[in-house]
Design a protein that fits this description.
about 290 residues; 14 helices; about 0% strand; mainly alpha; Farnesyl Diphosphate Synthase
Length: about 290
Amino acid sequence: MLSLFYGLLQLMRPLEWSKSFGNMLIAAVTAGLWMHAQIDPIRFLIGFASLALLWGGLYALNDYTDRFADALHPEKKKRAIPSGLVPANVALIFSLVLIVASIIIAVYLNGSSLFLVCVLAMLLNQMMYTMKPFSLKKRPVVDLLSGSLINPIFRFYAGWVLFVPAFNAPWQVLLFILGIQFGGFGLYRMYSKEHERRLGLKSSVVLFGERSLKRVAYVSLAIGAISYIYATFTVLPIRYLFLGLAMLLFAPFYKTALKRPQEINHKKMYWLVYVQYLVFLAGFLLLYLFAF
């Protein structure tokens, strides 16, 4: 029973919830700073719970649909389903329960229907990304767009519309999030290049040259960084510029990931990214709560 519980928790990938939490937090803080919106922490946490359940269910569904391919991957074969911790049919039922619970919470929060729209948009996009006949993650170009542009937009707006009933967030902050996440996702996908090639997939990482993809990732990261700097002169208080500069202290740790992403230590890089992300989010929130 304990191993099953651990397997179900593994299916939900709680560390990955930081993406939703971070995008929502940045949106909510920006709404408070730029629109002078009243931020209710309880409402925010309930909204985050909805997204945590949604993505827990979607990650479980992804592992269910990928269980046979994951069994052939050197790292992914350790996941809950191919390793035998969770039976495939249990994982499928579990994923559906989590998704339904997420929608119920979204309906409860539904003031102007916009939060529910965000939840349903992410659900639709991720199902198209994961499942047949679409399987967008196996198709060039759209695999990158669906996996790292569409979801961050609606994660961000899920935090925004909780407190501002309109899709009118400042583009500078949203472009910062999209640039960083799209660039990072592009580099991350190169780690699976050989595995996807052996499976005969026609994803972006297989069809396009590594040099071209790295250039796209570099440009995307640069756009994200420039957008953040611009936001600190137009939308965010200037003190947020110093937070961005402080994040450069992590730059030396990404040398291998930027130059030779296919050679990274996947586990160590995951922890590094999460630590930096949490440090940034903590600073972003503290600068809002304790303005000087």
